[in-house]
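Format notes (please read before filing issues)

Several people have asked whether sequences and structure tokens are stored in separate files. They are not. Every record keeps both together, in the order shown below: the sequence lines, then the token lines. Line labels are part of the format and must not be stripped during preprocessing.
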Amino acid sequence: MRVVSTTAGMLLLGAALAGCTSAFDSALSSVKKGNVSGPPTIDRPAPEIEAVDGDGKSFKLSDYRGKVVMLDFWATWCPPCVGMLPHERSLLKKYEGRPFALLGVDNTADGGPPLKEFIKDGRVTWPNWHDDKARIAGEWGIKFYPTIFLIDHKGVIRDRQVGVPEAQFDQLLDKLVREAEKDKAS
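Then the structure lines:
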């Protein structure tokens, strides 16, 4: 009994010290449900995300099939994440009318301004799932913010960047959008 309690205590302490208690809880919950496939990886299909936005409206990742999706795991309390917002708005403008979607997974719980403030003042103009319990982040193996995935128009993960992406990320995004347009024209 004491060994089990000590082991459980060490696991919880380790998760708390790592700063990912909610992600740990989510991962543990997934294992209990029999989902042991691990976080999504490059060149594999993106798992479905179905959740609600800050207003309680439900939407799914698969709703965007046929478009290249830039999936941004971020938080309003994260300075690099907030620093990326102008670039993300410029991408939306650049790819307007083309097969591209920017989607966010906002993990602002305690300590950051609400996402609604960012939407109201125009800093965020794209759909965001509200992930204050880090359920989605845990399922996707997110440990740091921002973490960004590029998902092609067929729903396959093509890249994953931890931190602010570099120029080659935008080059790959452009290539994937052109491929989606080419496939659509065929």
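For reference, the curators noted about this record: The two ends are 64 Å apart (CA to CA). The mean pLDDT is 82.
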